[in-house]
Amino acid sequence: MPSAFTPVKVAKAAAGLKLYDTASHTTSVFTPIKPGEVGIYVCGATVQSSPHIGHIRAAVAFDIVRRWFLKLGYKVTFVRNVTDIDDKILDKAAAAGQQWWARAYYYEREFTHAYETLGVLPPTVEPRATGHMSDMIDLIERIIANGHGYVVTDADGKPTGNVYFDVASWPHYGELTHQKQTAEVDEAAAVADRMGPSVDAAGDDKYNPVDPADASPDKHDPRDFALWKAPKDTDPEDARWNTPFGVGRPGWHIECSAMSHRYLKDGFDIHGGGLDLRFPHHENEMAQTRAAGYDSAARWMHSAWVTAKGEKMSKSLGTGLSVPSVLAEHSAWVVRYALGSVQYRSMLEWSDQALVEAQAAYDRIANFIERAGVALGGQPARDEIEAVSADDLPADFTAAMNDDVNVSGATAAIFTAIRSGNTLLSKLADHADSDEARAEVRASLVAVRAMLDTLGLDPLAEPWVSAGAAGGAGDGADESPEHVALEKLIGEQLAARAEARKAKDFAKADAIRDALAGAGIAIEDGPQGSTWSLK
């Protein structure tokens, strides 16, 4: 990763970036708190069981947001937490005869593998809740000292371990999710409000069941929520922490306030997460952070749900589709493309047709990249693709990404460039392979791959190359369509190199070899011809 002393050069295009804010229900120009830097906190997984595509859709959505900031030239600090202790983890571990921490770590590794397989960049830091108990305790003490929290005591006046946030003491409660009358209709938020509770219409949320601690008769107000809670009788001894307000463990919301402040300090640019976390999780998080005396996020962004026949996919409702089951039938590239095919705020309907369309997109993309590489005698190196600034990308792509990360518009720009590139390729022979014509094809190829790379989809980048172009499906990865396509792509370049050597055009032969080497492909010449392997 770049050091803290790496100079930041923000693209001119950054001035045009507009992002939606859940709290204000408006889209506005993004201005970083610190020039040249962006701090992002995204709620990560509760590692109770295997990841499903709803989890990964949120990860892919914010990965694309992060990649656009990087392409704009910002230094990005990206924090994604791991909730490794909660009721579900404890209960499921007990039912399976497991140590709760062993179960959490096992599934944390599954999530990490899913992120890596689908090309999600690793976070700058990935803190675990269990590693930040002192931070949470300190934060709760500040909230109590400021008059916005209270400790429940027993008949003898001793603390029970239950601590609640006093909602009535905080007049700003509800500013994140309260529906405001604006000219812009936030349909995704309206759907979430209809399907779950809000500060105006409290009730059961089938996606986020009420924490038993939040149903306690000890609360002063029904809206109050647990900052810290006494252990259940079934909780193991190593899932309890001693605090000034009694033995217990954290409430659901406090960890994110503590960890975002720990790593991004007082006030940061963006807080992200799935749409179902707006209430109660993010509403409560915003309130307790500010009640502790700290600034909360300047902007809140929420990715919409993955739906099946209009209903949110949910593991708790038995409608979640596991990532391993999807990857058993489709390449990782295709799954990522499908998950990131619409703007992050749009509901994503998951279907076989969506995956068919993603595979067709890959075929069109791979065909152009292959043909252009063969015509040029090699591919531009990855370093060159990564170095393309947002200011040098096609204007329609940049405009779409600056429009609240409108991936649909950005994808349309990619296919417009591919159509133009294919036209240039068809005319290349008419130019008698002139330097001018080759330069046009090369510029088109670089632009297409740079746009794809911004979305994490350049087929000649990791992890796609190591996994067989676009990531093999199932156990037969080596025989996947993507591997076959890569074999054909490289094979044709090796054939062109062989013809060049036969014609004693060693400059062209060396250029093909160097281009392949730049893409991470090693060539070995032997008596039976040339063979290739991934470095």
From TrEMBL:
<keyword id="KW-0030">Aminoacyl-tRNA synthetase</keyword>
<dbReference type="GO" id="GO:0005829">
    <property type="term" value="C:cytosol"/>
</dbReference>
<dbReference type="InterPro" id="IPR024909">
    <property type="entry name" value="Cys-tRNA/MSH_ligase"/>
</dbReference>
<feature type="binding site">
    <location>
        <position position="315"/>
    </location>
    <ligand>
        <name>ATP</name>
    </ligand>
</feature>
<dbReference type="InterPro" id="IPR032678">
    <property type="entry name" value="tRNA-synt_1_cat_dom"/>
</dbReference>
<feature type="binding site">
    <location>
        <position position="43"/>
    </location>
    <ligand>
        <name>Zn(2+)</name>
    </ligand>
</feature>
<feature type="short sequence motif" description="'HIGH' region">
    <location>
        <begin position="45"/>
        <end position="55"/>
    </location>
</feature>
<comment type="similarity">
    <text>Belongs to the class-I aminoacyl-tRNA synthetase family.</text>
</comment>
<dbReference type="Pfam" id="PF09190">
    <property type="entry name" value="DALR_2"/>
</dbReference>
<feature type="compositionally biased region" description="Basic and acidic residues">
    <location>
        <begin position="216"/>
        <end position="240"/>
    </location>
</feature>
<keyword id="KW-0648">Protein biosynthesis</keyword>
<dbReference type="GO" id="GO:0004817">
    <property type="term" value="F:cysteine-tRNA ligase activity"/>
</dbReference>
<feature type="region of interest" description="Disordered">
    <location>
        <begin position="197"/>
        <end position="243"/>
    </location>
</feature>
<dbReference type="InterPro" id="IPR009080">
    <property type="entry name" value="tRNAsynth_Ia_anticodon-bd"/>
</dbReference>
<keyword id="KW-0436">Ligase</keyword>
<dbReference type="Pfam" id="PF23493">
    <property type="entry name" value="CysS_C"/>
</dbReference>
<keyword id="KW-0479">Metal-binding</keyword>
<dbReference type="GO" id="GO:0006423">
    <property type="term" value="P:cysteinyl-tRNA aminoacylation"/>
</dbReference>
<keyword id="KW-0862">Zinc</keyword>
<dbReference type="InterPro" id="IPR015273">
    <property type="entry name" value="Cys-tRNA-synt_Ia_DALR"/>
</dbReference>
<feature type="domain" description="Cysteinyl-tRNA synthetase class Ia DALR">
    <location>
        <begin position="396"/>
        <end position="463"/>
    </location>
</feature>
<dbReference type="InterPro" id="IPR015803">
    <property type="entry name" value="Cys-tRNA-ligase"/>
</dbReference>
<comment type="subunit">
    <text>Monomer.</text>
</comment>
<dbReference type="InterPro" id="IPR056411">
    <property type="entry name" value="CysS_C"/>
</dbReference>
<keyword id="KW-0547">Nucleotide-binding</keyword>
<keyword id="KW-0067">ATP-binding</keyword>
<protein>
    <recommendedName>
        <fullName>Cysteine--tRNA ligase</fullName>
        <ecNumber>6.1.1.16</ecNumber>
    </recommendedName>
</protein>
<feature type="binding site">
    <location>
        <position position="281"/>
    </location>
    <ligand>
        <name>Zn(2+)</name>
    </ligand>
</feature>
<dbReference type="Pfam" id="PF01406">
    <property type="entry name" value="tRNA-synt_1e"/>
</dbReference>
<feature type="binding site">
    <location>
        <position position="256"/>
    </location>
    <ligand>
        <name>Zn(2+)</name>
    </ligand>
</feature>
<dbReference type="GO" id="GO:0005524">
    <property type="term" value="F:ATP binding"/>
</dbReference>
<keyword id="KW-0963">Cytoplasm</keyword>
<feature type="short sequence motif" description="'KMSKS' region">
    <location>
        <begin position="312"/>
        <end position="316"/>
    </location>
</feature>
<dbReference type="InterPro" id="IPR014729">
    <property type="entry name" value="Rossmann-like_a/b/a_fold"/>
</dbReference>
<dbReference type="GO" id="GO:0008270">
    <property type="term" value="F:zinc ion binding"/>
</dbReference>
<feature type="binding site">
    <location>
        <position position="285"/>
    </location>
    <ligand>
        <name>Zn(2+)</name>
    </ligand>
</feature>
